Amino acid sequence: MKKRIFINIHYLEIGGAERALLGLLSSFDPQIVDVDLFVNQHTGEFMKLIPNYVNLLPEIPEYTCIERSIKDIVKEGHIGMAVRRLWAKSKHKKYLKTLSAEEKKNDSSIFLYVSNAVESALPSLYDNGEYDLAISFLQPHNIVLNKVKAKKKICWIHTDYSTIHVNHDLELPLWDGFDYVASISEECTKAFLKTFPELKDKIVLIENILSPSFVRQQAELEDVSAEMPDESGVVKLLTIGRYCPAKRMECIPRLCADMEKMGLNFRWYIVGFGPDNLIQEALDKYKMRHRMILLGKKTNPYPYVKACDVYVQPSIFEGKSVTVREAQVLCKPAVITNYPTAKSQINNNVDGVIVPLDEENAAKGIADFLKNPKLQKEISDYLASNDFGNESEVEKVYSLMN
């Protein structure tokens, strides 16, 4: 008999973890497993990319209330959920008073306070029967832990825990309730275990699954030359990601200004979305609107990767960047900043380049690479002769059910 797998994620908006889930779903063999996917909110551009052999479970109203605005859920009559979320916010506010300024800045516990508060109002998912494996792909992990019946349960780490502050005592029981904790890289594992050394025996390494054939196929679906035109002597840089502190998009105008002073001729294109006020302010401050071009949100980013000359990831931290791997699959040299997990992502000067994290030296590092066509070609040739796919990682998921 085929094994049964349950997977939970909050929604399928455009994002690295969401793309990683699509990679996992696409790697399953429907002759071996039946997969039920439970998405809390049926929203996001990636919903239409769910493979047809995956059974998308119906949306349940209470689960849609976990992250939507309190105002909206009150309008729909979910008063109890609204009260629970307000109570969670007050508890979290009280907790923040015990933290230092730096800890407050990097605190990530609000979501756990909310998910703990609303859990009792969420219907059980036991009616779906018992699964061989239940996967919690993104927080809130307590849905899979407490609402799903399964022989084995696993939750995923997508975050570099060296960069965030967590409420250890509140969070530990959640992780400890699972049979396994999946980490996407060795560096993520090391950072996580510094915070939760008690969980060492539960960690399994399962990298984000990437299908080169899928990436290459998607890259051919659109012509983006009108948005990213070829210009004589102009290098096309590209960055993809949400506008959030971790991705550090607001520093790019400063990098552009420094690189322009170094005599470089380029356009730096951005595929992304989110609050852009800091980016807009920086663009005006450095007068770089002719260099940094905001293309907005794109469901299919791969044609833009194909159209660029160099992919750049100027993040402060990453778990393991999906977009960097995708750029490598399309034979585009990737330049990344030296965030804590960078060396698990790039073999410097072999399959990409790592530049310093601070803005001044990051700009110099990018400029030096753009002025080095020999190194660019060496990296592109290396990428063309190596396979960056890892669909075999799905075998690790199968093995957890044995």
Radius of gyration over C-alpha positions, nearest whole angstrom: 22 Å
Indicate the low-confidence ranges by residue numbers: none
Distance between the termini: 13 Å
| CATH class membership of the largest domain | Alpha Beta
Please give the number of β-strands.
Answer: 13
Instruction: Look up the CATH topology of the largest domain.
Output: Rossmann fold
Taking the sheet with the most strands, its summary is: 7 strands, parallel
Order of helices and strands: EHEEHHHHEHEHEHEHEHEHEHEHEEHHH
* Number of DSSP helical runs: 16
Mean pLDDT across residues:
94
Oligomer: single chain
- Estimate the global geometry from the Cα principal axes: globular
Tell me the helix content: 25-40%
Strand order of the largest sheet: 3-2-1-4-5-6-7
User: Which class do the helix and strand fractions yield?
Assistant: alpha/beta
Query: What percentage of the residues does DSSP assign to strands (E)?
Result: 15-25%
Tell me the CATH architecture of the largest domain. Answer: 3-Layer(aba) Sandwich
Short structural summary:
With 402 residues, the protein is of the alpha/beta class. The protein is 37% helix and 17% strand.
Describe it:
With 402 residues, the protein is α/β, with parallel strands linked by helices. It folds into two domains: 3-209, 3-Layer(aba) Sandwich (Rossmann fold); 213-384, Glycogen Phosphorylase B (Rossmann fold), CATH 3.40.50. It is built from 16 helices and 13 strands. It has helices spanning 16-27, 70-75, 79-96, 101-106, 110-118, 142-147, 168-176, 186-195, 212-219, 252-261, 277-286, 302-307, 322-329, 359-370, 373-384, 394-399; strands at 3-9, 33-39, 55-56, 131-136, 150-157, 180-183, 203-205, 235-242, 266-273, 292-296, 310-313, 334-337, 353-355. A seven-stranded parallel β-sheet has the order 3-2-1-4-5-6-7. A six-stranded parallel β-sheet has the order 10-9-8-11-12-13, with helices on both faces. Strand 1 (3-9), helix 1 and strand 2 (33-39) form a beta-alpha-beta unit. The longest helix is centred in the N-terminal third of the chain and has 18 residues, at 79-96. It is globular. The model has no long low-confidence stretch (mean pLDDT 94).
